[in-house]
Amino acid sequence: MASKYYVVWAGRETGIFTSWPQTKALVDGFAGARYKSFKTQAEAEAAFGAGKGQSAAGSKGTSSKAKPAASKPSKPAVSEQPDSDIDIYTDGGCEPNPGEAGSGLALYKKGELAELWYGLYNPKGTNNTAELNALHQALLMARQYLEQGLRVHIHSDSQYAIKCISLWAYGWKANGWRRKTGEIANLSVIQEAHELYDSLKDKLKLSHVAAHVGIEGNELADRMSIYTIESKETRFSRYQQPLDVPALLAMRAG
């Protein structure tokens, strides 16, 4: 169960969210953003259902009047803490598909960007393989942080990758890692990632995040996947350049 639920009535995307970094990306710098946190899912659903255009009156840091996005430097929209200690965003890229592929990852600590990772270049890869590789790397990192007693939330924009390791793999494994319709693509990485996920699932949060809607972590993971293709880095390596978010977002997108 999430520790908080965030309702966004007006932002880059509207709805109910359980991750503060994701919510922050949806409202930070958005003219006339309206949002509020709630302690329970029922309260959030009732508030959101009452009207998407409602003002989030009384919530910390909300605004009921539109202000120019460039009127002041971009800062965290409110001072609330994220619902996880560690948030990891993953993405995979392939140009074309199939073609040159690579994986990227953005890691946040307490809502602040801390690390970027890239690599696992494959000259003859696919987008699905790159997404799975990125998610696998995130799980390896998550295990280390969970062992330290920290809360970890992984965000992937690939429904395929998420379902492969957290849903479909259970049936495939029970059937001897076979499926009725033929061979299982990307079987090796699915098996490794699934076993890891299964050992962590009771403590780990894994969810889908919308792609290319301005969510910072997702956008940065995307840039890292394309940087992999350009650098042809086969190892999974930490990005060593300064974490200048505007400069990073100006890099080529996938």
UniProtKB/TrEMBL annotation:
Disordered: region residues: 50-93
Requisite cofactors: Mg(2+)
Enzyme type, top EC level: hydrolase
Keywords on record: Endonuclease, Hydrolase, Magnesium, Metal-binding, Nuclease
Quaternary data: Monomer.
Record GO biological process: DNA replication, removal of RNA primer
Chain intervals with Low complexity compositional bias: 50-77
Protein name: Ribonuclease H
Annotated source species: Shewanella loihica (strain ATCC BAA-1088 / PV-4)
Ranges where the RNase H type-1 domain occurs: 82-230
Membership in a protein family: Belongs to the RNase H family.
PANTHER family associated with the record: RIBONUCLEASE H1
Molecular function per GO: magnesium ion binding; nucleic acid binding; RNA-DNA hybrid ribonuclease activity
Documented EC number(s): 3.1.26.4
Known catalytic reactions: Endonucleolytic cleavage to 5'-phosphomonoester
